[in-house]
């Protein structure tokens, strides 16, 4: 038994077999956009899929931060009682 599996049993976690791991990696790979995941048709290592997924999640976090900052700037530059501010508030709530 691998050390990973023995540790997971000791911690009371469920064990994932190799077929399940392969299926989960495949599903994860399908979630990565085509422009990031260039090799959807060819076999890619699990570590490569995980690394690209982590990079994609980091880029999404940066995008959310950038959009939040832009929204904050827009709200700060808009009169709080204006129709434009009301529209913005309705979109984000």
Radius of gyration (Å): 21 Å
> In one word, what is the shape?
elongated
Total beta-strand segments: 0
Number of helices: 4
SSE blueprint:
Elements: H1 3-10, H2 18-31, H3 46-76, H4 83-92
Task: Report on this structure.
Helix 2 (18-31) runs parallel beside helix 3. This protein has four helices and no strands. The chain is elongated. The chain is mainly α and 93 residues long. Helix content is 68%, strand content 0%. The chain has helices spanning 3-10, 18-31, 46-76, 83-92. The N and C termini lie far apart (51 Å).
Please give a quick description of this structure.
It is built from four helices and no strands. With 93 residues, the protein is an all-alpha fold.
Distinctive features:
93 residues; mainly alpha
């Amino acid at each position: 038994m691998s050390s990973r599996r023995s540790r997971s049993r000791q911690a009371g976690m469920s064990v994932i077999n190799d077929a399940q791991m392969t299926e989960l990696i495949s599903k994860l790979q399908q979630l990565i956009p085509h422009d990031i995941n260039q090799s959807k048709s060819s076999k890619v290592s699990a570590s490569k899929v995980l690394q690209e997924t982590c990079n994609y999640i980091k880029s999404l976090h940066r995008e959310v931060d950038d959009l939040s900052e832009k929204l904050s700037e827009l709200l700060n530059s808009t009169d709080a009682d204006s129709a434009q501010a009301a529209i913005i508030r309705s979109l984000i709530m």
